[in-house]
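Because showing beats explaining, we think one record worth quoting, sequence and backbone structure tokens together, and here it is:
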Amino acid sequence: MAEIINMPRLSDTMEEGTVAKWLKQVGDKIEEGDILAEIETDKATMEFESFHEGTLLHIGIAEGDGAPVDSLLAIIGEDGEDISSLLTGGSAGNDSTPESKTEEVPEEETEAVVEIQQAEAVEEPKTVAPATEIPEGVEIITMPRLSDTMEEGTVASWLKQEGDLVEEGDILAEIETDKATMEFESFYSGTLLHIGIQEGQTAPVDEVLAVIGPAGTDVEAVLASGAKADEVDKPEKPVEETVDTPVAEVNTIKEAASSNGRIFASPLAKKMAADRGISLVEVKGTGEQGRIVKRDIENYSPAAKKEAPAAAPAAPAVSSIPDPGIAASAIQPIALPVGEEGSEEVKNSQMRKVIAKRLAESKFTAPHYYLTIEVDMTQAKASRVKINDLPDTKVSFNDLVLKACALALRKHPQVNTSWNGDTTKYNHHIHLGVAVAVDDGLVVPVVKFADQMSLMQINNTVKDLAGRARTKKIKPDEMDGSTFTVSNLGMFGILEFTSIINQPNSAILSVGAIVEKPVVKDGAIVVGNTMKLTLACDHRTVDGATGAQFLQTLRAFIENPVTMLA
């Protein structure tokens, strides 16, 4: 019996996931434990294993598409098994409505519906043959849901045409959503048999976008077997907008579109251009329809910019009454800056949306207050040098701060708490969250039981977690369960800053840079090294005096690192 596999909840904060890559295709044999796909959550990209055996009969979410938790991800069953009832019942489906449901509609209601459809139709509806099984190797591709708020999409451009051979991974089209224009890749190989939505047309999510399969396939029969075959050929735009346009005019329109902000380039080409500081406007594309690809960036050589002759003003622009003491001939026209305004909208990643949601909730629900203290780092610098002189030993100042925080939390358990409305949760374990910047935003790996670790253990754990976080190989459970968080921007030269509390923690520590400056010691001005620490506290659980006492203990540990080794 066929098994429906839904989008799994791979983390406690996950609301939707994106299929980064399918490792199995329709028709493949699946064994229990096989990796089906790589799924990107709000925290990491994870491999998703199959708990069932059989044949992969259906893929419900294409590569690159996102879907809410519990959406239809795939169906596994016996080879040749009829899954039409599962598709119509479990998703927005690619199968037609069962005939039994049609037979239940009273005859008079059916006639009324037909009259309404005829009145609304632009042209006479086509007669649709009874639903048949989709031939093997043929895939109906529907308008994907490329964002959580997307209800319809517009085909900005087709990069493949009917009759073209398509390989898995080829870019079929560029689709404009409510947030951005995105490249849509094919996860099937074959011939592009049918284009259901033309360039410039808009269609709802799940509308038939294209059909891919073996050359010579009867497309009409395939469309007739689809759930929306009777809607495929209905134009989304008024009839007058679909009038044939001369080729020369089409080319002119496309060139104008490219020059007005739409630059067609592959994701790799965009990244290479950004890394090399190359403006895509100056690069000529040699790919399909002038698309900029990798080789165009590699072969790009900046051409000498021609200086445009300045236009002579018709008359001197004088905005105020000249000083009587200045000769009129000495007044020179003022050259005003001339430029072109521009902007770009980039689709927010799932991680960025979750970061925004959680930080906004924290900032607007927890009453934040901030305490700042300055720490003398003279002894800490000297101790670090001695520690790192030991064989196979390497610690950073951040490691010293983490160790000091763990020990200070042990002495001040009120800071190691969580607000739960009617109760306050006192955590008897100490799990330190360490903020790590990644390409898509910010993640917080957790060093668990940090108070029981040595400096070297903390160093190795942070390096491992941060490294895997930047390569999206970290596991969700390695970013859950923090009781206190540390954010360090000192390596960027930031002297002092405040952070938003990482809920459900009660506090977060912001660590600034070590600064060499004059300080007063024993009544004399000497050269010293100081570092500022700012503690953000949730006033519902941590009072001002409690936060201040915690900082005093923290400073004592950092200024005398030997006390942390006892």
Notes: The longest strand covers residues 507-521.
